[in-house]
Every structure is written in structure tokens, then in C-alpha cells.
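Deliverable D5.2: sample structural annotation.
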Amino acid sequence: MAVDHYENFPVASVLLPPALREPVAAIYWFARTADDFADEGERSPAERRELLAGYQAELDAIAAGRPTQDPIFLRLRPVIADYGLPLQLFRDLLDAFIQDIDKERYANFAELMDYCRRSADPVGRLLLHLFGHATPGNLLRSDAICSALQLINHWQDVGIDAGKNANGRIYLPQDDMARFGVREGDILHRSPDSAFKALLAFQVGRARALMLSGASLGWELPGRIGLEIRAIVAGGLRILDKIESVDYEVFARRPRLQALDWPLILWQSLVRPLEAAP
């Protein structure tokens, strides 16, 4: 598990109950391939939209009880049926991926969080449905964790996203950039001055607070499922620590988890902090 792309998805994790590994993998490959359609390779925007429209058509076929053609959906369809997974969650993911094709700026944090609601939160909600713990309270805590993971991914990838094309993609909210005195050119030209560092420190604090607001979910769910969530939370928080430890120089080096981080993550996943005690 790394806070990267869909790598925070617990695919084939030894922490997952064995019976859930194939359902989780089926959901993962839907999300991973659809995200790649929107973001990876040399396809034109029209080609990307066409591929994602094909996935939308497959979801429509499932809803209407028509045959499924794509191998991804042949694998996913029985999982949707067996666990009663809401199709809208898959549609929300596709909607976010389609948005990624054309939208490269976010006016404010609320707009960015709306993107996270569709690009990240459905993943956690689908897992809770698989686990049989999709209560209203659990869903809200899961949303906080998943949105925080999405934000963390954005903040560790500021330089990568800005360099993806001529204009770059900037997820940092534009109103916050203006407030801290950061210009688009500073990001596109990879200039981490004091204003940029102050802006990123503010966003790191936001992501940490959001993650911690949902972290109790990992202690409330039983067994391996709870341990898996606690490990994901600890990994996300560790990335934030690493962003801070390099003084927000995310252009020069991308903060990511290394082998030496895992003992700390495991310890944090097993030892309940005092603030999480009932």
C-alpha cells in the first residue's frame, strides 16, 4: 500500500480476509483501468472520453440486465450482484475520471472536495459494502479517510501533475494560491519559494486534520478489516510527515513510503493512540 494512484487500494493485502481479496481486486481493476484511460498514455481527449463512455455503457448494461462484454465487467458483475454494490458509486468514479480529461484548475477547496467525493470516496464506500459495515457513520468516516488520501496524493504529486502537459494540472485551490501569493508560473516552473512552502504546509495541515477525523473507523471495525484501514491511515499520515521533512520540496523529490517506514506503520496500526480511546 502506497498513497499513490490507486496503490492505496488494499489489493491482495495479507490483512484482508481471503474471501474478500477477489471482490476487492475486481473493483480495483475497474478503478485502475478507468483512471488510466483518463490520465495515462498518448490518447487524445476524444479517445479517452470514448473509452470511459464504454465503461458507462457496461454499467448501463448491468443495470438493465443485458449481457456484459468487457473482461473487466465480466469479473466485476458477479461481485456487484453478490454484495449488492450501488452502481452509482461506480458512475461517480467515471464522472471524476471524465472531469480529469479537461479540468486542470480548481477555484477553491470546496470544488476540490467535490472532486474527491467522486474520485476517492466511492472506493471506501464500496469496501464498506463488501465488508458489511456500510452504516451512515462508517460511510462518513470512510469519506474523510478517502478524501484525505486523495489530497495527500495531490500534494505529493504537485510537480508531477504540473508537468503532465503544456499547461499542467494544478489541484491547489486557486483562491488559496492567491491568498499565499503563489502564481501558477511558480508551480509550472517548479519554484518552491517560501510562499509555495507556506501554501503547501497549509494544505498538508488540512489533509492531516481530515484524515484524523475519520481515523477512528479503523478502530471500530473488527479484525483484519480494521487493521487494514488503520494501516492505510498510518501510511497516509506518514506521507504527510515526509512532505514536511523535505521542507515541502516536492518538485525535487516525490515523498513516498520506503521499506524503513513499514515498521512504524505497523506499530501505529497495532497501538491505539490515547486520543482514539473510547
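Annotation notes: Confidence is low (pLDDT under 50) at residues 1-8. DSSP finds 14 helices and no strands in the chain.
The annotation will be released with the project's public dataset once the embargo ends.
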